[in-house]
Amino acid sequence: MKILVVGSGGREHAIAWKILNDNPNFELYCIGTNAGISEIAKCVELKTIEEIADFAQQSKIDFTVVGPEAFLAQGIVDEFSKRGLKIFGPNKKAAQLESSKVFAKQFMLKYGIPTADFAVFDDPNEATRFVEKKDEPLVIKADGLAAGKGTFVAKTKQEALNAIDLLMRKKIFKEAGAKIVVEKFLEGKEVSALAFCDGQTVVPMPGCMDYKRAYDNDQGPNTGGMGCVSPVSHYDKQMQHMTYKLVFERTLEGLQKEGIDYRGVIYAGLMITKQGPFVLEYNCRFGDPETQVLMLLLKSNLLEILQATVERQLSRMKVDWFGKAGICVVLASGGYPENYEIGYEIKGLEECKAIVFHAGTKKVNGKCVTNGGRVLNVCAVGETVAHAREIVYREIKKIHFEKMHYRTDIGLNV
After folding, report:
1. 299 with 219, same domain?
2. How far apart are CA 238 and CA 243, in angstroms?
3. End-to-end CA distance of the chain
């Protein structure tokens, strides 16, 4: 069987690794590349969804899995479906849950899904006037896709005004910030709640905690994610059940009423408050770095689950997990998420006994070098979070590259 994975980061390496681990005789292809993926898949560099669909047709690909949200938002699933090609992920209409924060917030309001109070603006002066009347902390979000960096938590009025300026006047994320959402800041602890959804059935995955800030103790700028851990103590069985009822069931019901055929992963970024779970945002694909941990904890055959999702057969699937703890620590280039340098040789990978998923790496003259902001994902599984944590930080010490940076507090106090 020929499988195509679209994307070239740590998430895609983890998906490719799991598929091959479950099915060693399958032939793997990947759109994009890094030094890790290139060892297990045939890699092709293509830019447009039409080029990718052409490649899948010509190569007789049996099944495609999409990693990045940008391709889903552009309608890669619609293009593949039009050609009779099997692909995992929501179509363009369904992907609006992630590609438009305004759409998502209005959807949640309409279908009674718990979320923070909000206001929407397409005029920076109106947004400024609104914020100037507020004294409490606010969250300012770009409407469109901004690679996980379009959210600003403003503890002061000035921080909120600065965020409006950056998004709407300076347009740091271009048209993604043409509209913004200003919402009430919620107190609590975050959880990434992912689920498989075939349009009729929702099957939740174990809860994860993603660490967004660049530095220890949640300091520094927002990143695409500096690490992840599962399970999470503040997401116990009672909270999982509440999330299923209040978030996933209502989301599916809302999608059905809107006539949206959602088949793929629904990712609800939650804030667990004293009042229960509130949805901060939706993503319409596997999270990064949550996927790196979830692939290690998934006992069942991943591809069979993905195929069942596409074929609306999830209700017949038994999805099993190992019941252990998993952790992922991101090794980043110094300066990430702002200015950083690439091209440094990575040493010690052969000595490292942890599972390493590559993100921003490439091969140059037989050597593995840095080629991005997030470079490597070092992962481990243990009987407990503390056990997994002990393994991962011990093994990280064996890896080195110039200006390497990572958080030392992943998995503490969860």
Report:
1. yes
2. 9
3. 40
Range of the domain at 360: 325-405
- Determine contact, residues 181/105, Cβ cutoff 8 Å: yes
Residue 296 CA to residue 5 CA, distance in Å, equals: 18
Total domains, the chain: 4
For 51-108, how does the pLDDT look when each residue is reduced to its tens digit (9 = 90+)? 999 999 999 999 999 999 999 999 999 999 999 999 999 999 999 999 999 999 999 9
Order of strands across the sheet that contains 27-31: 42-44, 27-31, 2-6, 63-66, 87-88
CA distances from residue 270 to 9, 110, 160, 414 in whole angstroms, order as listed: 24, 18, 22, 15
For the segment 158-179, what is each residue's pLDDT rounded down to a tens digit? 999 999 999 999 999 999 999 9
Closest CA to 332 of 406, 243, 264: 406
Angle subtended at Cα 147 by Cα 228 and Cα 137, rounded to the nearest 5 degrees: 75
The domain that holds 6 is classified in CATH as 3.40.50.20
Task: Output the six-digit token pair for 94.
Answer: 């369904």
Same domain for 216 and 146: no
Tell me the pTM. 0.95
The Cα–Cα gap between 385 and 147 comes to: 28
Closest by CA to 230, choosing from 293, 322, 295, is 293
Q: What angle do CA 239, 251, 184 make, to 5 degrees?
A: 70
Assess if residue 411 is contained within a domain. Answer: no
φ and ψ at residue 310, rounded to 5 degrees: -65, -35
Eight-class DSSP state of 345:
B
* Residue 228 confidence (pLDDT): 98
Side-chain half-sphere exposure of 291, counting CA atoms within 13 A: 27
The length of the chain, given as a count of residues = 414
Which of 94, 77, 69, 399 lies closest to 252 in space, CA to CA? 94
